[in-house]
Each structure stands twice: as structure tokens, then as C-alpha cells.
Amino acid sequence: MRLFTEYNAAIHRAIEMQRQYLTGLKSGQADAPRVEEVESANEAQKAARDAYLKHINEHGCGVAT
Fold this sequence. Notes:
Shape: elongated
Strand content: under 5%
Low-confidence stretches: none
């Protein structure tokens, strides 16, 4: 459950960073996240996803029998 919670949080962080970035671009905000920060959040989300899927594959968690 911990890995799923971390994955879920990473998804929300990535979405929020993208939202802030696009809002900043639209309104010209100087303090909006930079594209590198958005990419970093996306990479963190992918790493959390990979850790979650690896755990599921190794332990058979969440697989209906």
C-alpha cells in the first residue's frame, strides 16, 4: 500500500506542477515552475510507477486468482 500511496502522491505532484507551469505561461508569471521542474516531477512519477509495478510483478500483489 505504501508504494501505491507514493505513486498516487507523485501523480498529483506532477499534475499540479503541469497546471502551475501552464497557468504561469498563460499569465506570464515569473515565479511559475520551469519546464525542468515539470520534467523532474514527471520523472519522479515514472519512478514511483515503476517501483509500484515491480513490486506487483515480484510479489503477485493485486493479481486476482
